[in-house]
Design goal:
Blueprint (H helix, E strand, L loop, with lengths): L2 E4 L4 H12 L4 E5 L5 E2 L5 H11 L3 E4 L6 H6 L1 H22 L2 E7 L21 H14 L5 E5 L2 E2 L8 H11 L3 E4 L3 E2 L2 E2 H13 L4 E4 L6 E2 H12 L6 E4 L19 H7 L6 H12 L1
Parallel strand pairs: 1-2, 1-4, 2-3, 4-5, 5-6, 6-11, 7-10, 8-13
Antiparallel strand pairs: 9-12
Helix pairs in contact: 1-7, 2-4, 4-5, 8-10
Bound molecules: NADP nicotinamide-adenine-dinucleotide phosphate.
NADP nicotinamide-adenine-dinucleotide phosphate binds next to helix 1 and strand 5.
Length: 285
Amino acid sequence: MKALIIGSSGQIGGFLAAGCAAGGMEACGAGVAGEEFRLDLAVPDSIKETFARARPGIVFLCSAMTHVDGCERNPELARRVNALGPALVAEHCRAAGARLVYLSTEYVFDGVAGPYGEDDPTNPVSVYGRTKLEGELAVLAVAGALVIRTTVVYSYDTAAKNFIMQLIANARSGAAMRVPKDQFSNPTYAPALAAAILALVSKGAAGIYNVVGPELMDRYAFALRACAAFGLEPSFLEPQFTSELEQAAARPLRAGLKTGKLVATLGQSLPPVDESLAEIARALK
Ligand SMILES: NC(=O)c1ccc[n+]([C@@H]2O[C@H](COP(=O)([O-])OP(=O)(O)OC[C@H]3O[C@@H](n4cnc5c(N)ncnc54)[C@H](OP(=O)(O)O)[C@@H]3O)[C@@H](O)[C@H]2O)c1
């Protein structure tokens, strides 16, 4: 079965591509940055052309407008990229009989009473969350579609701007880093996330699955754990309330996702934070 990874230049798409290669699954990439197929989710013709040429048996839709405050400032583009584009991808999958795996987020919740199970009522508080939820609903209309909700995804990747790479960059430059102390969620190690997604696919899983790390913690606590793992002096970290950060988009504060369904299906959870951070510490040396 040939896989099409939309957003293979991104953090999660990159680990999915590596996972497909390691598992012997033929895969090709699509995106706006010169991947094998040029696909812009905001340009319907580019989606149509990619499906006609790639003829995938399974599609991993990782692309999104992921900058949460950027979505708030440009809601029209956010909707085209995060909702209308995925709806078209879903349409093409349905027509081609291809399986569809869509990456979504805990930001579909309001963060009043997390952690959340897959069936809890959604109530996004930002444009990003609303447009990702609209994308989810379009994708779930395709029989057999798999929606993966995740959060705070991190990895060691010198080209990436995930939270951990930002932390390492700030620690090295000595620049202060303001970190929210009131946003709770589950840090999720990207290589383990990709492996779990591929394991769910191989089991024929469908519907919504939460795929996140096993521990719920606030972002400042996560930053302190990372500093300890990497031997960094944490004085550059400045714990703040979210309200002090003056961000354009509201954040779900008491968020996080429950993983009982994932554990029941795969028989294991993702590795604990300290184990994943230790792996990054080894890469740093
Ligand atoms: N990272 C997290 O903490 C997190 C948490 C929850 C959910 N998610 C979801 O997981 C997915 C992947 O996240 P990630 O961490 O891998 O994000 P990422 O590293 O920011 O990658 C996003 C990808 O989307 C591509 N892209 C952006 N605009 C596009 C467009 N108009 N058309 C086609 N491709 C476009 C980017 O291409 P360029 O690199 O060329 O811009 C990149 O390949 C997203 O759907 C996101 O909503 C991520």
